[in-house]
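Before we proceed, please read the two lines closing this message. Report back on whether the structure tokens fit the sequence:
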Amino acid sequence: MRLKGKKVVSLVHHDFEDLELWYPILRLREEGAVVDLAGEKAEEEYIGKYGVPAKSDYSYSDIKGEEYDAILVPGGWAPDKIRRFPEVLSLLQHFEENKKPIGQICHAGWVLISAKILQGKKVTSTPGIRDDMENAGATWYDEAVVVDGHLVSSRRPPDLPDYMREFVKVIEQK
């Protein structure tokens, strides 16, 4: 129970990558963290790319960054929707300013790009958004996981064990 007493918020919207949402949530809960899901609306059911549902606990606007120790942004096509909410971008800026752990995988980098927090960062993502990440000022690496201080990024589902091993360490150290 390395993360007992820690609170993490995971963002969700339709067409999330099922494994990239649920695997991190379950790993963090196994380590004792409380993980809340925030979506466009509270108590809303969102469906992943492969049909797995996830019900939000809160709406994006309900979430206060100071109440959480870390944030997760899943991949899939959901990030293209998630990044359209100003309250999400403000939330990510809060985590960046306060050096709280931020986890992002696959297309989740789009949300960080829209929050304008990637300048000078070392990251990875799905290769399909490499140019977007670099155009936002990040240095991109084709590696399973890249840790740059409080920012932990990963490429795709096969990298989830490496991603979560590092994300848990980063949260534990904060």
Notes: The two ends are 15 Å apart (CA to CA). The longest helix spans residues 160-173.
